[in-house]
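Bench notes, afternoon.
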Amino acid sequence: MLRRGSGSNWGRQGLADTRSNASGAYASIEMASTAAHPNHHRLASLAVPWPVLAVAGVMFAGLMAVSGAYGFHGDEMYYIVAGQHPAFGYVDQPPLTPLLSAVSVALFGVLPTAIRLLPALEMGLMVSAVQHAGSSPVYRGAALRPA
């Protein structure tokens, strides 16, 4: 950010460097942290509060704790077999579900807990996504308006 001034200036946005320009006046150039990282405010808006992280962690831990208590569901076996025969699309599902199942089987083996690891992680991510969507100004205002 370029600001006209007459010396060094420590502002809220960081250190200001003063240099003389051709007309003899001084221009102070601030080295703002947001100028160095233009997406800093976007990343800060993605910060998740610790209670939300705690709920997501408890949900993940609970799902993983009971994931080995019962055997495979029929759909899980179908996804394992479909993952062994990848295609761009299936009659009843998009290709990502069998692909994720194949990745899980390749990394962890054919175990119920291994198959349920990625869905449990996705559920934890959904908790934080719902919190982020609910804290958005668009949704906050929409909740207060009558239908």
